Automatic annotation (TrEMBL):
InterPro entries: Hexapep, Trans_hexapeptide_repeat, Trimer_LpxA-like_sf. This is Putative acetyltransferase YvoF. It comes from the Bacteria. The gene is yvoF. SUPFAM superfamilies: Trimeric LpxA-like enzymes. PANTHER family: ACETYLTRANSFERASE, ACETYLTRANSFERASE YVOF-RELATED. Signal peptide: none annotated.
Length: 174
């Protein structure tokens, strides 16, 4: 189960009421920073923009590939550990706006995590240290540390123990 907090709304759908939830100028600033960072080829500059202006928690030597989109409304709810890779065109959401409610949840991505291209990470998700998420995955539940997950719907393909065994056998065949 994803860890999100629910906020019911009355009247028009929750997205229609977005500026009752988040100030317009915060959304404007976040949009501006995200657009700049999406096209910035320099990892340290990109991480500085995210840390400084979006208040994201990002570990050292973490790389956000070209066109990654962090949450535009609640980027401060995203944390990524050290030496991780977030693949091309990945979207990391910390919110979801529905008809009768909106939900907000922290996204925690561990150390040395590899997230493949074109992945969507939903709010309230934790991805454990040294996990691998294949390209094109919809991450709708937690990913345990060290495992390999992928697909839509996402499934655990190899557990941590199976991944360690695979790495060990690959080293032996070299």
């Amino acid at each position: 189960m994803r860890k999100t907090k629910r906020y019911p709304v009355k009247g028009a759908n929750s997205l229609w009421q977005v500026y009752r939830t988040v100030p317009f100028w915060k959304v404007f600033k976040n949009t501006f920073i995200i657009v700049i960072a999406r096209y910035t080829p320099f990892m340290p500059v990109k991480n500085w923009l995210y840390r400084t202006f979006l208040k994201m928690k990002i570990g050292e030597q973490t790389a956000f590939a070209f066109m990654v989109v962090p949450d535009i409304l609640f980027p401060e709810k995203i944390s990524v550990g050290k030496n991780s890779i977030i693949g091309y065109n990945t979207t990391i959401l910390a919110h979801e706006y529905l008809i009768d409610e909106y939900r907000v949840g922290e996204v925690k991505i561990g150390d040395e995590v590899m997230v493949g291209a074109n992945t969507t990470i939903l709010p309230g998700i934790t991805i454990g240290d040294r996990a691998v998420v294949s390209a094109g995955t919809l991450v709708h539940k937690d990913v345990p540390e060290g495992c390999f997950a992928g697909g839509n719907p996402m499934q655990i393909i190899y557990t941590k123990e199976e991944m360690e065994e695979r790495r060990k056998s690959e080293k032996e065949t070299r």
